[in-house]
Amino acid sequence: MTLDNTRLRIAIQKSGRLSTECQKLLKGCGVKLNIREQRLIAHAENMPIDLLLVRDDDIPGLVMDGVVDLGVVGENVLEETLMERRATNEPADYSELKRLDFGGCRLSLAVADDFDYQGPQSLEGKRIATSYPWLLKRFMDNQGVKFKSVMLNGSVEVAPRAGVADAICDLVSTGATLEANGLVEADVIFRSKAVLIQSGTALPAGKQQIVDKLLPRIQGLQQARESKYIMLHAPKDKLEDVIDLLPGAERPTIMQLAGDTNQVAIHMVSSEDMFWETMEGLKALGASSILVLPIEKMME
Ligand code: ATP
Ligand code: MG
């Protein structure tokens, strides 16, 4: 299958921690995808967009080399690739379009639970296993600590037990993997989320138009996820107190209730979640029928 150069090319991870969220994001933007197993390319049915399904490590390079127009990748992989490419004089131009609200993790130093860790200087002269040698080196250089890097592309967490390294520098989200391997997180060296990046060269007008369409939609999805639609009934004489309790209620809508002159309905979009405590407080003021609804999409 060949690639049509007039269609916007987006590289996403084929399978792994970012792939489901990436596909959900595109679907949320109205892109109809027909992804088939074992295929490198997927064509959108309703927009001139082609997806490249690849390993996440390849995504920054594909964008920086201009093979694809956009890519979604973790900042950890992006930053690592960037440092490596700059050091080797390879093309490293790109622009960041949006930091996304998924793929959160941190790159951390971890040591065996019986290691006496007093700060990065405790690792002076030690062997550290990692898949992120450049990010690790930058951190240790800043700390003025010399170490030996042991490059591993997987199973980094078993390195200390296997006697291959004294410490590791690996991605952590919950810390369960570290714990299962008798390791403890010692220092966070980089915090990461998924980002949408674009190639450094200007896009032809047709492709740029699609990007201009996608970006506000991504923004709308992200904003919707952070917002709630809140509805409730409140006694008229407690209206002020009720509104004071509502999170981020600047201008709620107040509506009459049919056949009830003592109460009104309040509707509002809140950029914050509503806690049980707030709902209980509202109830104590005489409010009732309190509903907190998720919002699917929004455009301001
Ligand atoms: P690939 O086969 O595509 O190279 P991978 O094994 O390198 O996959 P994944 O483990 O799927 O990659 O992680 C992809 C990205 O997800 C990471 O680079 C990181 O940005 C993000 N991520 C979020 N949470 C975690 C976590 N707990 N561990 C590892 N990566 C995480
Ligand atoms: Mg990878």
From TrEMBL:
Cofactor entry: Mg(2+)
Gene3D superfamilies: 3.30.70.120, Periplasmic binding protein-like II (3.40.190.10)
UniProt keyword annotations, A-Z: Amino-acid biosynthesis, ATP-binding, Cytoplasm, Glycosyltransferase, Histidine biosynthesis, Magnesium, Metal-binding, Nucleotide-binding, Transferase
CDD domains registered for this protein in UniProt: PBP2_HisGL2 (cd13592)
Ranges for domain ATP phosphoribosyltransferase catalytic: 55-220
The gene coding this protein: hisG
Activation/inhibition comment: Feedback inhibited by histidine.
EC number(s) on file: 2.4.2.17
Catalyses which reaction(s): 1-(5-phospho-beta-D-ribosyl)-ATP + diphosphate = 5-phospho-alpha-D-ribose 1-diphosphate + ATP
Residue ranges annotated for the Histidine biosynthesis HisG C-terminal domain, each copy included: 224-297
UniProt-recorded name of the protein: ATP phosphoribosyltransferase
Protein location: Cytoplasm
InterPro entries according to UniProt: ATP-PRT_HisG_long, ATP_PRibTrfase_cat, ATP_PRibTrfase_CS, ATP_PRibTrfase_HisG, HisG_C, N-reg_PII-like_a/b, N-reg_PII/ATP_PRibTrfase_C
SUPFAM superfamilies: GlnB-like, Periplasmic binding protein-like II
Source organism per UniProt: Oceanimonas baumannii
Family: Belongs to the ATP phosphoribosyltransferase family. Long subfamily.
Short name of one Pfam family: HisG_C
Pathway: Amino-acid biosynthesis; L-histidine biosynthesis; L-histidine from 5-phospho-alpha-D-ribose 1-diphosphate: step 1/9
GO function terms (MF aspect): glycosyltransferase activity
